[in-house]
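Re: nicotinamide-adenine-dinucleotide structure - here you go.
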Amino acid sequence: MAIVSTNGNPVAPTGPRTTADVVTPALVARLTRDVIGTGRTSTSTPLTGEPLAELPESSPADVTAAFVRARDAQEDWAATPVAQRAAVLLRFHDLVLKAQEEILDLIQVETGKTRLHAHEEIQGALGTARHYGRRAAAYLKPRRHRGVVPMLTRVVEARRAKGVIGQIVPWNYPLALSVGDAVPAFAAGNAIVTKPDTQTALTVLWARERLVEAGLPRDVWQIVLGDGPVVGSAVIAEADHVTFTGSTATGRLVAKQAADRLVGVSLELGGKNALLVLEDAALDRAAEGAVRACFTSAGQLCESVERLYVHESVADAFLDRFLARTKALSLGSGLGYGAQIGSLAGARQLEAVTRHVDEAVSKGATVLAGGHHRSDVGPYFYEPTVLDGVQPSMAVYGEETFGPVVSVYRFADEGEALALANATPYGLNSSVWSRDTRRVGILAGRLRTGSVNVNEAYAAAYGSVQAPHGGMGDSGLGRRNGAEGILRYTEAQTVATQRLIPLGPSRGMDDASYTALMSRVLGAMKTLRLR
Ligand code: NAD
């Protein structure tokens, strides 16, 4: 397992541990013992391509069995006081922090990402566990509303758990995404049946084991494994709400299936995110931030920037800084800290990245940095790549690459920058760099993305878990985090109690007198400025 710079020179010694030290048969047996799966499947690590684990595979009937278990357990869980449910999340938070080296290893071997980027997953998962551990009771608290007849109608809005949530998770951030969307659902009193991507199932199973250790009843979180179209579809067929993270194409299928059943969906989908460098940006900071924006997790982050728009007056100065930093990045497959860029997740990602770069070059784009598959580091490594001269006819112009590839464009004024940034059906994240934060505040209102990071790549918005997070347009439906992130897992129920007089003619009052009385009441309510 090597760490090399993009020009091929070794830059750090390799660690002594191998993937076989991390994923032992005993660990696999322990983590998978509750998985209902009558078939078998296997995974390999993208770091080296070596086999990793033999795992159970669930059939649609196994998924049904998992739902039965989850439904049985959910009623008691929903009846557990919210403070106790929230306490489980806070204990989970501490258990993960304590065992972080274990999960960092697992994330690295399953995803191929660097340890620093793996740690971002811990930060994301624990941010949500802490937030909902502390705030769930407030979000779920019954709320009083004014009744139809003030004083005589008592109205309470209660939040009821939806039941069993179906969760479908991709491979790119298995800990952050599975935990981030699961903890508010648990806090609200739901059970969950999760279908992770099989490649990164052990990470999700490890998170489940920590939640159970923290006090979550075992059956409240079921995990099923298998192919998306079969097992994912079986999950949607039984869920009371579906929370899906993945590609836009799959998201559309998920939404259609959920629509047939009239169950809600939250969809966190793809993006083609833009980063704007305005003429007054602090260029060193912007270049540093752009490197993180484009190449974190080898560009396999939904928030990753794949389009860089730079004001023409600073384009050369910015590019000098950005390209120097990009070319200095080290690639590495070792377990432990050191490398700055990890592997792509597998053959599918490598094929997509290679196709986008090769096609752009064949149609006239220029490679300013990178542009090569690095099989000397590992089977799926690809250099951080910067393209210039990209045209709308090239796939990389508008399609999500989901790899370490960014295209650079120059703009003359803010209006042009906005038009270019918004010229995509996606709308997940944008990043804007300028010293004038007031100006950017106004600009943000015209950017069609669910989050706008000002003088930061993506982490400021994503990590601020009290605020909603999600995509506009083809990037999604609904929001995770904050109030919306937990209320989506509840049904609002209005309980109205009528006192003293009924809401209809009574005690011998005729219809005309009753309606006249009600008209006077309506007029008085307006005069009294009641809302
Ligand atoms: P994908 O859509 O191929 O798969 C995602 C999950 O859906 C997997 O678990 C897969 O097995 C399952 N699946 C596949 N077909 C299915 C079907 N017909 N029914 C039900 N489930 C099905 O996506 P991917 O390639 O694994 O993940 C990368 C994509 O996810 C990128 O587009 C990325 O932008 C997106 N993503 C978005 C966010 C976000 O928060 N917006 C976060 C991470 C990743």
